[in-house]
Design a protein that fits this description.
Layout: H1 4-17, H2 25-28, E1 31-33, H3 35-49, E2 55-59, H4 63-69, E3 72-76, E4 81-85, H5 89-95, E5 103-105
Parallel strand pairs: 1-5
Antiparallel strand pairs: 2-3, 3-4
Amino acid sequence: MGNYYEQEHVRKAASKHFAFLTPGTLTSSIRTVSADAIIKRVNRKLEELHPGSFMRLKRTRRIQQTLNLGDLYLLDGYRNFIIEHHLDLEAVAKQYKVLGRNEKIAQV
């Protein structure tokens, strides 16, 4: 692979770009994932499990909706029917296995 100077240049460049890959970094670091990203993951999983049923995890927008449905609810868009309400995002993410072991949901 070339002379000593080329090898040294490649080694320095690699150590600079991959400095974050220290031992234990990949196994022990916990990533914070936004709630919107988890909702999108759940919706993709619902589409995969129930194709064509238009099931969606939705977030309430108004105070009256929040009082009636909680922060999150599961909607069957095909029948325009609320399947479940007052859902916990972390429990739903674990139920559909969209939250990794090294991930946690960001608190707003």
